[in-house]
Amino acid sequence: MRQIALTRGDALLVVDIQNDFLPGGSVAVPEGDHVIAPADQLIRLYHEHGFPLFFTRCWHPPGHCSFQERGGPWAPHCIAHTHGAAFPDALQVPEDAAIISKATGRDEDAYSGFRGTALAEQLRAHGVQRLAVLGLATDFCVLNTVSDALATGFRVMVVQDAVRAVDANPGDGERALALMAERGALLVHSRPASLLNEA
Ligand code: VGL
Known about the structure:
Layout: E1 2-6, E2 10-15, H1 36-48, E3 53-58, E4 98-102, H2 119-125, E5 130-136, H3 138-152, E6 155-164, H4 172-182, E7 186-195
Parallel strand pairs: 1-7, 2-3, 2-5, 3-4, 5-6, 6-7
Helix pairs in contact: 3-4
The structure holds pyrazine-2-carboxylic acid.
The site of pyrazine-2-carboxylic acid (VGL) has 10 residues, from helix 3.
């Protein structure tokens, strides 16, 4: 698998690493906590070298349409301003990182960080051309965010060791990775990542 070599126009997109998607959370993704260490390493690298960082988060009101009580598929999760919606303490979120809240309306769902947000405009404003994407969950929010990023014209690297899947049906995560690759994403590994020297 390829490694990351950072170059002009790069940004890091951290998808939904929130307490409710980690072990002990209401929609715990198996091994969800395993993404934190590689995420942290890349957050440091991108930040140290002045590349922009974007963090998406599910930010639902109580009674959100995706919750089982409303006929949706999920247990209540990531309710705005609760511990479950917060980023885990172990994840460092730099002060200047952009935080994109999604699915904030009661009747509005969004797996993709691009749906109902200004993410595309914010990326363009920063001159971003290529995203490294990591986080949770491979078969839901990562898949949908990456697919929209590609459709919007960004180049995308998926950091394969820094994503984990819900895997409600065995193999969903693997199929999502294959689909993202088919749609044009490059599958990469978090290590060793480096800075490309520009001429
Ligand atoms: C997600 C389930 C429900 C995700 C969000 O972040 O992939 N999964 N809401």
